């Protein structure tokens, strides 16, 4: 087989159009190559030449495996596919990895699905094959990402369920009645849900500390309590954000029951700063205007979150001080537990 195949006359008669099939072939956006029955190059379109980085003069008349050497399993797979197509049997080789020129002197990986179509002469006899290379790189990448997302989702769901179970057990341990258990459990689940919502909104890349504090304190602030928040833009990694969210909720709940959010003439100020050298975060929760505040006599759920879970999840150092006029809680979180700022 030599030369380029010309359009079959009956195609022109059927359409009533004088179509230049050769021009159409060379304008197709996908890579196409035409081989004879001996698997020598007869023609290829411009897209094929562009993606392979070869010239027509370099390929015409050459055996396909001389021009593009293969070995092992790939050689056997494509030789069989080519020979079957050249004998009249259409077939497809699905999702094979190729390395092609990247246009900058290097190579890039692409995934192609190769469709092999028999070519027939005017007598209806097989005389070669046409290969179309369909780029499925995006599909392969999307499926891989879907797998990663599914595994990550499964991991996070399990972590979430473990957290909910721990909250339930600890709340039950300190509840005096079913009603008090339900009240405490509902509030903590809602706090967990608010933190989760912030994480989802930011694609699990991190949670804005200011948004978390505003979300937890907005209810109390609306009641005209003297609440102030101040600090720079800081984001917490998703892995520790839920623990911090629960800690802030417990501090706010205790303040609403016994502290600055429960009494008149009191003040709650929450500030946070970043160390200029190491970049560590320091959060200061300060309640003032309290004269008779005493340390708790028993460790509750809030104390467990603040003193045990925070160091475990965020490597945080926590110091609580009961002062003559109120309460200080200082939380120090190392820089490596903070998330980078979002990209613009």
TrEMBL record:
Keywords: ATP-binding, Kinase, Nucleotide-binding, Phosphoprotein, Transferase. InterPro entries: HATPase_C_sf, PAS, PAS-like_dom_sf, PAS_4, Sig_transdc_His_kinase_HWE. Transmembrane segments: none annotated. Residues 17-71 form the PAS domain. It catalyses: ATP + protein L-histidine = ADP + protein N-phospho-L-histidine. Coiled coil: none annotated. GO terms for molecular function: ATP binding; protein histidine kinase activity. SMART domains: HWE_HK, PAS. The keyword ATP-binding applies. It comes from the Bacteria. Its EC number is 2.7.13.3. It holds the Pfam family HWE_HK. It is an enzyme of class 2 (transferase). CDD domains: PAS. NCBIfam families: sensory_box. PANTHER family: HISTIDINE KINASE (PTHR41523:SF7), TWO-COMPONENT SYSTEM SENSOR PROTEIN (PTHR41523). This is Blue-light-activated histidine kinase. The lineage of its organism: Bacteria, Pseudomonadati, Pseudomonadota, Alphaproteobacteria, Hyphomicrobiales.
